[in-house]
Amino acid sequence: MARTRVKICGIRDVESALAAVEAGADALGFVFVESSVRNIDPDDAYEIAGYLPPFVTKVGLFVDATPEEIDDFGEAFPYDMVQLHGGEDESRVREIREAAGVPILKAIRFEAETIEREFRRWNQVDEIDGVLIDGSAGGAGTAFDWTALAKHIGICDHPLILAGGLTPENVAEAIRVVHPYAVDVSSGVESERGVKSPMLIGAFCRAVAGAS
């Protein structure tokens, strides 16, 4: 089985970024949503990125932003990938892909009654490069029934990233059930809301490595 990739989201300081990289994270997420406790200014994100080694993917997370806004943020902070965590429809996603010129992750909130329809919907959109399944609107640490999701993953044509309520204690089981391409964690590696814990980041990455 291929190695499960790891994204640590909600990075706001150099210490957390380097702790994630040293623990083996493949990608770091920077939240550009003013209402979020994990929001970061693009200039601060750019400064953090200057400390990162090569081959670490920098992901800009947005919620219902316009293509123009995302492009403007990209001028200040040259992210490698964009994660769309709002209600963006297919047309808006295509516009953002053209404007940003980088790979796109589309987040979907898991609901057993709609997940199959959502997979089929986004299978038709070649402009996305992965589908992220969350248990909430994002960053709330809400877990969901992984077994219920596993019944439908064969329908998804895109790489699947699992998020929502993951912690160092449960991520190995989540991987065994879902077999995702990658896992994405934010609140599950925090010592308090919005504050990353290097110790928890390390424990999370070790748990992923042990399950892969």
If you had to describe this structure to a student in words, what would you say it looks like?
This protein has 212 residues and is an alpha/beta fold. The chain has a single domain (5-211), classed as Aldolase class I (TIM Barrel, Alpha-Beta Barrel). Helices cover 35% and strands 20% of the residues. The chain has eight helices and ten strands. The protein has helices spanning 14-23, 42-49, 67-76, 90-100, 115-123, 146-150, 171-178, 198-211, and strands at residues 5-9, 27-31, 57-62, 81-84, 104-109, 130-134, 160-162, 182-185, 190-192, 195-196. The chain has an eight-stranded parallel β-barrel with strand order 1-2-3-4-5-6-7-8, surrounded by five helices. Strands 9-10 form a two-stranded antiparallel sheet. Helix 4 (90-100) links the parallel strand 4 (81-84) and strand 5 (104-109). It starts with a strand and ends with a helix.
